Amino acid sequence: MKKFIVIGLVLLVSVLLFASGKKEKEQPEGKSEFEGQTIVVKLSPDMAMSGLKGVTEQFEKEYGVTVDYNEIGWDVWFPQQAQILATDEPLDVMGNGKNAWIEFPDKLTPLTDIFPDVFDEMVPELVEYSTLRGEVMAVPFLPSYQIMFYNKSIFKDAGAEIPETWDEFLVTLKKLNDFNGNYNYVADWTTENYFLNFILTMQSAGVDEYNWIDGKLVFNFDDPGTVKAVEFHKQLLDQDLIDPGVLVQLQQEVSSLFDQGDIAMMSMWEMYAGFLTDEQFENTGYFAFPGMKAGMTGTLDGHEYLMIPKSAENPELAAEYIRYIASYKNTKERSIVDKSIPVYAAQFKDQEIIDALPYLPVIDLVKKNLADQFPPIKSTYELRIETATQIHPAILGEISIKEAVEGLQEFADAQESVPQ
Questions:
Q1: Mean pLDDT across the stretch 153-171?
Q2: One CATH from 1.10.10.10, 3.30.470.20, 3.40.50.300, 3.40.190.10 for 146-301+367-413
Q3: Which of 50, 165, 302, 312 is deepest in the core (most CB within 10 A)?
Q4: Residue 361 has what pLDDT?
Q5: Dist CA 330 CA 335 (whole Å)
Q6: What is the pLDDT of residues 76-100, one digit of tens each?
Q7: In this structure, what DSSP letter does residue 373 have?
């Protein structure tokens, strides 16, 4: 009897040891070394979208770590990130636009040698956008482009056609306005954001925002094509085709009008499709911003990236966190659920993603005509403000367009550039 008891005990211990060993074996390698550690993460709600907080909580659970996770609105985050980098405030992961490494190139950790395998699989142009002087400064996480959204029902009922040129745009807009009595096109032309629509329209006139000539940065704000772009904006107001309040309508107000089905068109980041209800999504179409002539168009990048400041107190765990949330699996889910543009090259051939993102053909067209909302100067925010300060009076007829673009050109010429 004792023999059987002993044998039973031996078998029980063996099973427990095997189960324990199996459990330990199933633990992914490298996770235990981070157990009990903490990182601080700060990023914009745009980058967070609907699922990042949940993915972060899963990361905490799997790794046994704590993530001090902070979503900060752009109105606060834009100046706050500058303060963080300028003063070396401890921060492990920063989510922001490329202005971070243009304005503070020595405050961020180069990532070329940390994520070589990830960058090899990502869309090459996104990695190129993330590069400064041969070093990849950030992991692309939220590519975004401005395109035109349109309400399919209103277009159909009004008998309107998708415009390809500025002249066609004026005709289409008048037809839509006459149909329902509303101003059917809205964009954010407020002081901080007018710059975006200004350079987008420049690009659709065939004018590059800037060029590097003999190592010197040269803006093209006084180009004849730029004058044409401002004239187009002025036409919209002069012909009463756009709400006179456009100079003070915030992006949130613009999008709410489209949400309610009151207007037919808006210029917006494509990621906004992820915020539409299922019914709105089915009734929304997309087209490229019309050009001065047929075949021309323009867009601008609203890309956001994940970075590790040199002030990070736990850069190793920061890198592990970025690798985790920017994985192929997680970014694919963001594309399907949140309608976010893919970051891995192979994802553009994934039928699930293709089916989820009806605007992809428009993105393929417009991204070849890209304007840079963060030009390589250390004062991008100041340039935004100055653009509205100079151009708004010209749109309102208070000064000549020639005087306005020359004033903006003079200001831009005086800015300190950042060699690329």
A1: 97
A2: 3.40.190.10
A3: 312
A4: 96
A5: 9
A6: 887 888 899 999 999 999 998 888 9
A7: S
